[in-house]
């Protein structure tokens, strides 16, 4: 692997990771309502065992478990309805302290989870939600483990939701979001409601946390696609600006930082860790034995008419078109990697096959692509 390429990609990947930041979510609810299962289903992350993580403030019973661009705040050792005064004091101290921190360190949203088939929602829970809102947190009330048949939820769930709506709690949408995090292999009941939950969460978090939420959640693929196309469009515009005054073909490496930043951000959006993303990037661009200029000019040869500009100059149109096509091709590689749909040999991704995928997608966007 080219050390130059790896180092350059690492720098841009880390820079994009810092720009995307972290999404911090507070998850509350009584013991046994399915909080851990819900978090794992939405984010693909196992929740830390009790005692893992760090207190959000000194002597606090609220814990923050940081996992890359995801932070989960929950209670440890206390129970809503039993330790309300202690939790209220911890919450007040926590919010005041974290409000003074950068936006990436603040809590952006709260889920309050209820298992409706317990058929109860206590006043202590309603008051806890009001307390969260009074401290400036947007709250989504989540019904977990909702039973359904043929798309119709259990009538007891509907009844409890109706009773909660009558309380007029300051929750998103004024009603619970129905979810079932896991398919039941015995009854065949499907998972549902997770995309609704993620989309509701987008509505209440600050704009600065949107990109991190897009990257960390694993169920709303449409939002990942939108963020990806936005990233590709911005990179194409940046490439056009860089070549507003035509640049010599031999100096095409000025496009490299723009393209590596785009590739790094797309990898992060699809939750690909650096080592895997770098391997795929090398396989895709065949940069393993080349430096930056050679890597870019090598790929530029695939542009229709590139032979007429070799030794000449690259204008804004070529730079933008090439960067856009490269982004779209890399997006497909990232999507396939995230879904586990890349060719494997002996349990390892087939690098030659990855490059064929990349160049095949590049060719679709440049129909006259010349294979050499």
TrEMBL record:
One GO biological process term: cell division
Superkingdom of origin organism: Bacteria
Gene Ontology molecular functions: GTP binding
Any matching Pfam family: MMR_HSR1
All copies of domain G, residue ranges: 25-131
Signal peptide residues on this chain, from the entry's feature table: none
Keyword annotations from UniProtKB, A to Z: Cell cycle, Cell division
SUPFAM superfamilies referenced in this protein's UniProt entry, alphabetically: P-loop containing nucleoside triphosphate hydrolases
Keyword tRNA processing carried by entry: no
Name of this protein: Uncharacterized protein (DUF697 family)/GTP-binding protein EngB required for normal cell division
